[in-house]
Amino acid sequence: MLRHNGRTMQAQSTAPSDRYKPRSRSRRSFLGLSAAALATSAVKPLAGQQAAARPNILFCISDDQSWLHTGSMGDPVVKTPAFDRVAANGVLFGRAFCDAPTCGPSRSAILTGQAIWRLEEAGNIHSTLPSKFATYTGILEDAGYRIGHTSKGWSPGRLEPGGRTRNPAGDSFASFAEFFSQGPADQPFCFWLGSRDPHRPYELGSGARSGKAPGEVVVPPHLPDDPVTRNDILDYYVEVERFDSKVAAALDLLERSGQMENTIVVVTSDHGMPFPRAKASLYDYGSRVPLAICWPRSVPAGRSVEDFVSLSDLAPTFLEAAGLAVPGEMTAQSLLSVLTSGASGQVDASRDAAYIAMERHDGCRRGGKGYPCRAIRDASHLYIRNFEPTRWPSGSPNAADCARAIPYGEIDSSPTKTHMMENRNIPEVDRLAELAFGTRPGHELYDIREDPGQLNNIVAQPEAAAALEALQNRLMRHLADTGDPRALGQDAPWDYYPYYGRKVNKDWEVDPRS
Ligand SMILES: [Ca+2]
Hints:
Helices cover about 25% and strands about 15% of the residues. It is an alpha/beta fold. It has 2 domains: about 55-350, Alkaline Phosphatase, subunit A (3-Layer(aba) Sandwich), CATH 3.40.720; about 355-495, no CATH class. It has an 8-stranded mixed sheet, sandwiched between helices. A 4-stranded antiparallel sheet has the order 14-15-16-17, with helices on one face. Strands 10-5-13 form a 3-stranded mixed sheet. Helix 5 runs parallel beside helix 10. Bound molecules: calcium ion. Calcium ion binds near residues 103, 199, 270 and 271. The site of calcium ion has 6 residues, from loops.
């Protein structure tokens, strides 16, 4: 287990350095069986599955949690027994990425199985999800599933402008238990267990008061290592654990009712932690998410998979598992063959990269301008294309330019952010603050092997030229192949779609199209 003694994770890491050393999972058990026993126990083949009972789906999604912050991924402080239980009873994915590091667009991509550049105004937060875009929940409901959600479903935004009257995550319930108690036993269900944890605000000092030690926090390399950051991360962990306890209650209910065997359980987050250079950025701490999936009937347990996965891949996975056709416009790739393979490590060689995108995150620039960007992340590099590099990536420094009247408004208000803004006289804080708040070039390239924190842009280094060209070409080809207007030179109207978020600056408005 890693012990932190005042050094950052970057300094402690050794290759492959993009995850903590996982704890041994050999001692974990599930339903009284060790993971190894489950892996060798009879797992029913998928052949003829349509004739078998269709699986239930329990999709558990936290709100703003980075991939490293679970017990299974080796974090030495946060305790996530429910996440760890699903991972031990199924598959832990170490390289899962959201489609967009911003609540609404990420959730739209999950529901539709499509990249955000294919979803028109749903590519922006505080927007809508047009009803013409099919969702896996809607398709399952049409096929006889009972669907529901609790807490944060598709959000934030307004349903009505998109022609919807109900949250696309399903009917609303107080809890999974309430939903479960009201359903007929013979009808398959699809439930979205949402949460507003660990979204800010946090209860200041709650982490330390719960007995967690600031000295044990592994501070990400893009944040200043000081007591403010460490305590802010502890407060974040309290909410990660509160979400995990909701998942634990749902798992216990499935187990008690005998429904676990044929339920696909997914535990993940919509994007990364709400800290500077994390949420609302395309770097790993913004875009890389926890992901564990189990399905005792059909998925061999106790595995760790390194395939690159996007959260939009879940929609076609659920449909295929239910024996339903995947619509052609759902361009994401089903994970079912990876899940049922029984293999660990890199299972499908074609899953060697993920694509991430962002348009307008919040109303943080004059006239409603966003920060359009796209990225490709593979095992060795992160390449980012910023289409409007003269704009402020984290929002304007001028509060008057922001709908919510805060400077650098793409970054949620927090003790860490305030500390970084107020202490730029300290050279190390200033260096990291510039990376978080300052402008960025049109092209960014990071070597993950040398620089897992993605702090050193090597785009101009001659020895990086070959990798740069290959990644640029691959990214632009993928965008063009999947119909991204920005890659095709077509009309890209995200700067002009309506903004339905809260306005503190009452005169802040989205510019009309000229
Ligand atoms: Ca979120």
